[in-house]
Design brief:
The complex is a heterodimer of chains A (133) and B (94).
Chain A (H helix, E strand, L loop, with lengths): L1 H25 L3 H21 L34 H31 L4 H13 L1
Helix pairs in contact in A: 1-2, 2-3
Chain B lengths: L1 H21 L12 H4 L2 H12 L4 H9 L1 H22 L6
Classes of the chains: A mainly alpha (133), B mainly alpha (94).
Chain lengths: 133, 94
Amino acid sequence: MDFIIAKYNYWIYIILMMIGFYAMIVKNNLAKKVVGMNIFQTALILLFISTGVKTGGATVPIVIGDAHGHAIPGTLHAIDYINPLPHVLMLTAIVVMVATFGVALALLIMIFKRYKTIEEDEILEIRRKEAFT
Amino acid sequence: MKTLDIIGWFAVLTTGALLIYGTAEMPNWGDPNSPPSTHVSPRYIEKADEETHTPNMVTAVLADYRGYDTMGETTVIFTAGVSCMMLLRRRQGK
């Protein structure tokens, strides 16, 4: 039981990641593939965020100081604040995720204008016909 | 089409099973002594306010310690925006 409580967060992220992976490799619709990629990236971000958690009274990584917001020297202990580094790095990852999502959607619009469909097999069929003519 | 579906399911289930097998070695959830929370992060928690005078440690790391990284990040967003504009621009005569 302790093992399940200690690890079930990873299992949830793996299930989420596999949903995204399935959408990326099996789905025929290119828009669904893009959304699958987004789900995959979200699962990774959740995995890294969960490594920053500390149980036992740790709070958000904002200094609890005196009335002016300055830290009282000698009162900052790593055990009292959750790990700030995963949050920072995942902020960067979210930026990259948004950028790739936007460019992928723009490319999808162009594919739809060119082929009038975003189904992968229909696009391949059209391209095959074009190659022979 | 049906065989591709079966190959896809096989790949997904194999990868998922391997990843779940790998979680046995991962640190426990919320463990204060886990590797991500012990090596460099205590130094940032203890010194960030003193060195940058920013109470929010996430902001201190993002905009001060990793300021050049954040500047590069704006380049990423700029490139994405420019490429979207170039892709979606109405072309002359077509």
